[in-house]
Amino acid sequence: MKLLTLNFLTCAIKTCKTNPASFPLHPRDAELEIQESDLNLPFLKNILPRLMWEEIRILAKELGLPDLPGSAPVPEDLVDSSSNAALDTPEVSQGDEREQEASQTARDLHRVLIETCIQEGKLVCGSCGHEYSVKEGVANFLLPGHLV
């Protein structure tokens, strides 16, 4: 389960739906694995506005990952400054964007969000304390009948 996935998960228990403490789910006893992949700069630029940045920073800290910047990066931060001249031309196409050089910020963000995976452990709700197990990189969100 990629760390990015935790940005979109909340507790499935009905009574937690309105409680802000049910997001994000906090990893406990997490066994991490790095699964290397090619950096996709357009994807990172498009996902930035959807990230709950403070929550991602908290999760990274809880997992013992390097500290992320205090404020969310903007798409311009993801491109190496020597490649920024290409961004100023209005005729830049999607193909040209893939050829731009990724900045260190983009590489770090890619490493944390995309390549860092939780292989084993638990995800714990901050509201009710319910634990969702993670086995072989897959979280189990099936609830017993009395909690549905």
TrEMBL record:
Q: A GO biological process this protein is involved in? A: tRNA methylation
Biased segments, Basic and acidic residues type? 95-105
Stretches for region Disordered: 71-105
Q: Which InterPro entries match?
A: Trm112, Trm112-like
Q: Which GO terms describe its molecular function?
A: protein heterodimerization activity
Quote the Pfam families the UniProt record gives: Trm112p
Q: Which PANTHER family match?
A: MULTIFUNCTIONAL METHYLTRANSFERASE SUBUNIT TRM112-LIKE PROTEIN, UPF0315 PROTEIN-RELATED
Stated family: Belongs to the TRM112 family.
Q: What is this protein called?
A: Trm112p-domain-containing protein
Q: What species does this protein belong to?
A: Ampelomyces quisqualis (Powdery mildew agent)
